[in-house]
Design goal:
Residues 242-297 form the Heterokaryon incompatibility domain. Pfam families: HET. The structure is a single chain. The protein is α/β, with parallel strands linked by helices. It folds into two domains: 2-48 and 233-417, no CATH class; 67-217, no CATH class. The chain is built from 17 helices and nine strands. Strand 7 (290-294), helix 11 (314-319) and strand 8 form a beta-alpha-beta unit. The longest helix is centred in the first third of the chain and has 40 residues, at 118-157.
Length: 418
């Protein structure tokens, strides 16, 4: 199953039990949808144009483990920088060299204090202390610099409609970790502080990369702001881009990292993949945490007149998910499937228990289930049969080009089941 990562805008493939929780979008197709190739092209292009990618790869390594005993002073991650002229926040710095410096330090062990051996020990200890002070100040400067950059990106994201869900999502980077300083000599205390600040730096770097990826992949259809990096302008100019963006914003707000959208998560140039997707589609909708039904042509007062209720494929998208949330024009929330059950039943004539998952679908007769689809239409003749495979639990080969014969084959399969 291929899913769209709502934060990075990239497609990721999962199988079996490894499939994460996801939201799913149900909609009516238009002429200008965002396709699989649009998403793939953007992902490949962004990967090639990321600034300082080599440095980001180095810094994306897990932060070093810090084990520090606690008894004395504590320090929070978000502590304000010290107002010390000797520890100035660098405003412009070579990102790659900075990452390489810290990577080399992470690979080499930090020297522990030497054992006392008279005057030679004191001289060696003094040199070790000076070197550690320089390292500590350097890492502290890098950390403060990253903190400034992160705050700038967070301020920029506050202007985006997704800000609440997104900023809630990244709070784990700023959790209130308490770090304690070892009791001991000046060297040991400074060594503890060095390890702490170094770990905090890697946290800030991870947060900064995350925010940068979000800004690089998407722009809001409501504000229309341009992304700061090279993108595929053809994707954003497509009419279908808005619904993809709306679905991703909603998924972030509902704490979903992935969303499945049929227009861009299926490679329709592959007949094998298309066939697999059609056979598994009912199951995918059934397993989704939530389904967003975008009825963009109506509002609440004329909800039942939506084109969505006349399409063949949307029948299984209404029946399969346990939770369906309807959104009207410009992504205005209309209500859930249970909230709007009376209106839906009036329009579709679907049995209430089947609609609200109070009774198993397979317990309904073939004639009853077929009647629900009788007034629905599909663009291709074959899809009138293929869109019902999941509803009847039928598995049969897909042969586009066979026309009405597809429905005859479906009837034969149903007769065999009976």
């Amino acid at each position: 199953m291929r899913l769209l990562n709502v934060f990075t805008g990239k497609l990721e493939e999962y199988f079996g039990s490894a499939i994460p929780k996801y939201a799913i979008l149900s909609h009516t197709w238009g002429r200008d949808e965002v396709t699989f190739s649009d998403i793939q092209n953007v992902g490949n292009g962004a990967q090639a144009t990321d600034t300082g990618s080599s440095g980001m790869e180095t810094c994306s390594e897990p932060p070093i483990a810090v084990t520090i005993t606690s008894t004395e002073a504590t320090r929070k991650e978000d502590e304000a920088p010290e107002t010390d002229a000797r520890v100035a926040v660098p405003r412009a710095r070579d990102f790659v060299s900075e990452s390489q410096d810290l990577a080399l330090e992470a690979q080499s062990p930090i020297p522990e204090p030497s054992s006392p051996q008279g005057p030679i020990y004191e001289e060696k200890r003094s040199t070790e202390m000076q070197n550690l002070v320089m390292k500590y100040k350097k890492v502290k400067m890098f950390y403060f610099d990253k903190t400034v950059q992160v705050k700038q990106l967070q301020d920029k994201l506050k202007n985006e409609p997704l800000n609440k869900g997104l900023l809630d999502r990244i709070q784990h980077f700023d959790s209130d970790h308490m770090y304690s300083i070892e009791v001991g000599s000046d060297y040991e205390r400074l060594l503890s502080k060095y390890k702490i600040v170094k770990t905090l730096y890697f946290r800030r770097q991870a947060q900064l990369e995350f925010l940068q990826k979000v800004l690089e992949r998407w722009t809001s259809p409501r504000t229309g702001e341009n992304v700061p990096v090279a993108q595929n302008p053809s994707r954003q100019s497509k009419a279908g881009y808005k619904k993809v963006r709306y679905a991703c914003e909603q998924a972030i707000s509902d704490d979903y990292e992935y969303v499945w959208i049929d227009t861009c998560c299926i490679d329709k140039s592959s007949s094998a993949e298309l066939s697999e997707a059609i056979h598994f589609m009912f199951q995918w909708y059934q397993n989704a945490g939530v389904c967003y039904a975008y009825v963009e042509d109506v509002q609440l007062e004329n909800f039942g007149t939506s084109r969505w209720f006349t399409r063949g494929w949307t029948l299984q998208e209404l029946l399969a998910p346990a939770e369906v949330i309807f959104f009207g024009s410009e992504w205005t929330r209309l209500g859930t499937k249970s909230d709007l059950a009376n209106q839906i039943i009036t329009v579709t004539r679907i049995d209430e228990k089947a609609l609200l998952h109070q009774d198993q679908l397979k317990k309904k007769s073939v004639a009853q289930r077929m009647s629900w689809a009788s007034r629905r239409e599909t663009t291709r003749l074959e899809d009138a049969a293929y869109c019902l495979l999941g509803i009847f639990g039928v598995n049969m080969p897909l042969l586009y080009g066979e026309g009405k014969n597809a429905f005859f084959r479906l009837q034969e399969e149903l007769w065999d089941i009976r």
